[in-house]
Design brief:
Number of helices: 11
Structural class: alpha+beta
Bound molecules: flavin-adenine dinucleotide
Order of helices and strands: HHHHHHEEEEEEEEHEEHHHH
CATH architecture of the largest domain: Up-down Bundle
Strand content: 5-15%
CATH superfamily of the largest domain: Butyryl-CoA Dehydrogenase, subunit A, domain 3
Helix content: 40-55%
CATH class of the largest domain: Mainly Alpha
């Protein structure tokens, strides 16, 4: 096959009837229970408790998690379909699911059996919520640059620092937190970081200000303050000082979910624009008959389907355990989020004045899509990852 993938197997998307049945079930739930509430969620900036409870009953919090830890199984592709369908109605609800993944995936990949049983099981069943606290006031892209400190004292670590933009922190029962346990080595800037599970009731943990971001209303991020928080040594996730790998490997997996969120936003914006272009008449004919609008609709659809294919492809590669999924996941995240932003912008334009009226629900797609280009690795960072991984895989070189 073509550079840098070697086999036709690498290009397969393994969608089955089971995936489609699952999509139908999620769509039915979303169309009847979530879509009619989008204005309430925008207005209150909260996801209603009854929606979360129903999602729990449906087992949606466990999709993609192993059954042995209370999950529903299904892998990354099933999880991407869930995220896509939920984001098509209310993207911030997909963030609520996503932050649980950000909490559980580092534990599933690097944690102990006890940690998986104790912390992943309640999150997968929806009985508890997790959050992921890595970003700091001094920076989020540069994971090796974090300032939060953890020092070991007997059988505990004492953590002090400040995290910002932490989604779901106010509702979280548990957080994974990154902290420096040792200074970096001269040759390895990333060395010396460790990851811990922190429970919300540990003394010294405080949830600070809420950030009022432009979109994803319903799931706004928070500041998290750690003031000499005493964490049992058994809550260390993965080897001490190797936490950088824990964090970046987690994002390799979770960014497929962000691509899927973007596909859901793009799908919603596209559907709305297409319907409007069929109904709205100007100069005696429907908008869709005006060639400038026809072209826009065609370009929106092109980007939407390309984004979906990249996302499902990355998820399939991840489910097969292929290391190349990392390139595919970054391609999908950067492409799908930028496609969603562009498609949302065109949807506004096609709606004219109604596109910028907050009551029509069109402009919110743009506000939400822009956020997907920023979190879990900005799209600049995705571009760095794509080229680094490509050069490493093809030429065996580190750049
Ligand atoms: C709504 C929302 C929810 C979030 N939820 C969470 C969460 O739950 N947990 C969490 O830990 N974080 C979360 N974040 C934080 C998010 O991951 C960071 O904002 C993001 O990683 C970027 O970090 P930064 O904002 O510090 O920007 P910086 O890292 O300061 O970057 C600023 C700009 O410079 C660019 N840049 C940086 N380095 C390079 C480089 N080497 N080459 C080229 N360009 C570069 C970036 O792409 C960006 O455009 C959330 C953010 C938002 C907006």
């Amino acid at each position: 096959m073509v550079f840098p993938f070697n086999s036709v197997e690498d290009f397969k998307i393994e969608l089955t009837d089971e995936h489609e049945l699952f999509r139908k079930a999620v769509r039915e739930f979303v169309d009847s229970k979530v879509m009619p509430r989008w204005q309430e969620i925008e207005r209150t900036n909260r996801i209603p408790e009854d929606i979360l409870n129903e999602m729990k009953e449906q087992g949606f919090f466990g999709v993609g998690f192993p059954e042995e830890y209370g999950g529903q199984g299904g892998g990354q592709l099933m999880s991407a379909i869930l995220m896509e369908e939920i984001a098509r109605a209310v993207p911030s609800l997909a963030v609520t699911i996503g932050v649980n993944h950000l909490f559980a995936i580092p534990i599933l990949l690097f944690g102990t059996e006890d940690q998986k049983k104790k912390y992943v099981t309640p999150v997968a069943s929806g009985d508890a919520q997790g959050a992921h606290a890595n970003t700091e006031p001094t920076g989020g892209s540069d994971v090796a640059g974090i300032q939060t400190r953890a020092r070991k004292e007997n059988d505990h670590y004492i953590i002090t620092g400040r995290k910002v933009f932490i989604s779901g922190a106010a509702d979280a029962d548990y957080l994974v937190v990154s902290a420096r346990t040792n200074p970096p080595r001269e040759d390895k800037r990333w060395w010396g970081i460790s990851v811990f599970i922190v429970e919300k009731d540990y003394p010294g943990l405080k949830i600070g200000q809420q950030f009022k971001v432009m979109g994803m209303r319903g799931e706004q991020p928070y500041e998290v303050i750690l003031d000499e928080v005493k964490v049992p040594a058994e809550n260390l996730v993965g080897p001490e000082n190797e936490g950088f790998k824990v964090i970046v490997t987690t994002y390799d997996h979770t960014r497929i979910g962000i691509a899927a969120q973007a596909v859901g936003i793009a799908q919603a914006a596209f559907e709305k624009a297409l319907n409007y272009a069929l109904q709205r008449e100007t100069f005696g004919q429907p908008l869709i008959q005006h060639q400038l609008i026809t072209g826009k609709i065609a370009d929106m659809y092109m980007k939407l389907e390309a984004a979906r294919l990249l996302t499902y492809w990355a998820a399939t590669l991840a489910d097969k355990g292929r290391r190349e999924f990392i390139i595919a996941a970054s391609l999908a995240k950067a492409f799908a989020t930028e496609a969603a932003e562009w498609i949302a912008r065109q949807a506004i334009q096609i709606h004219g004045g109604y596109g910028v009226d907050t009551e029509t629900g069109v402009e919110r797609y743009l506000r939400d899509a822009i956020i997907t280009t920023i979190y879990e690795g900005t799209n600049e960072i995705q571009r760095l990852t794509i080229v680094r991984m490509l050069v490493r895989q093809v030429f065996g070189l580190k750049i």
